[in-house]
Amino acid sequence: MQNEPVVAIAGVTGAVGGEFIATMNKRAFRVGKLKALASARSAGRTIDFRGERIVIEELGGNSFDGVDIALFSAGGAIARKFAPIAVNAGAVVVDNSSAFRMDPNVPLVIPEINANRIVEHNGIIANPNCSAITALVPLWPIHRTNRIKRVILSTYQAASGAGAAAMSELVDSTRASLQGQIYQPKVLPYPCAFNVFNHDSPVDPETGYNGEETKVSATPRAIRSRCSWPRTSP
User: Which of 62, 68, 83, 217 stands 20 to 30 A from 199 (CA)?
Assistant: First the structure.
């Protein structure tokens, strides 16, 4: 890979897409060219990247020609469809969705824990969801010294976890609430202003866990099965 790679961001107009750009700038990550990819409704708009206006292109089958690194944050369905296309075009994909997290052939990486697994990729690298990452990073050094057998975890997540559209809805619902108006949500199942509700994911009727809880439970096991976690006696 060249020293100034061609980087594509799939889902560039979303909240995480913006964070990709902000993080690259903060870390002075060298980029030879940025390809901004999004849905058809965003195509033709522009974003600012290091003083240059980048035209957003519609994500398609030919979007990854000449791309070295493809950062995906466009949802699981989009990742499952386009990540293999990007790999076949020669790119290394880092996927932020749940699409490949449980795939045993895809490295599930938290750099502070198992960065060595990055070199094992076959074109795609997955990262865990936000709750799992923030919990496991501080727990890992503890576990290496004194094996952890059980964790009880509670998460209280912001609207931003559901993306830019949910963040806009939070602003609108807050404004409506302060004005004493009834607000009908379009992105989340309930008005999120001044409210707390069960995570916006299906609830398993057998276990009572919602999708977020299931993912957070499965992720540490997946990482453990794919890296050298300590197996000392309790």
Answer: 83
**Residue 61 φ/ψ, nearest 5 degrees:** -65, -25
In the CATH hierarchy, which fold is given to the domain comprising 6-99? Rossmann fold (3.40.50)
Torsions phi, psi for 198 (to 5 deg): -60, 145
User: What are the boundaries of each domain within the chain?
Assistant: 6-99
Q: Nearest Cα to 219, choosing from 74, 211, 52? A: 211
Ramachandran sector of residue 75 (left: φ over 0; alpha: ψ -120 to 50; beta: rest): left
- Phi, psi values for residue 81, rounded to 5°: -80, -45
Half-sphere exposure of residue 157: CA atoms within 13 angstroms, side-chain side: 23
pTM above 0.90, yes or no: no
CB 223 within 8 A of CB 113: yes
Distance in angstroms (rounded) separating the CA atoms of residues 2 and 201: 40
Q: pLDDT digits over 15-52, tens only?
A: 889 999 999 999 999 999 999 999 999 999 999 999 99
